[in-house]
Amino acid sequence: MKKHYGSNATFLPLRYDKGSEEPLACTLIDLAVGSWNNPTFDIAYFLYLSTTPALRRTHEQEFLAFYHDHLISNLHKLGYDPSVYPYRYRLL
Hints:
By secondary structure, this protein is of the alpha+beta class. The chain folds into two domains: 1-34, no CATH class; 39-91, no CATH class. The chain is 40% helix and 15% strand. The protein has two helices and three strands, in the order βββαα. It has a three-stranded antiparallel β-sheet with strand order 1-2-3, with no helix packed on it. The N and C termini lie far apart (41 Å).
């Protein structure tokens, strides 16, 4: 990384070829979004940014159950107590 340009919420490192002013590559890194939250924020954010309203209406409960099953499985593998995240659709 030779140069970078930043705005208030992002860090944009650019990679340049030697002797060139044209960037070869860049990576967007958003340092302002990181926080500790309930995992339901992750799935809500993902679903609302990556699916259509029709798809969510049709499959929302399936998506949430799938996410919860994998969350619990990974919490077990990592040695955490998954009981702090019970699956209750109305709370999501």
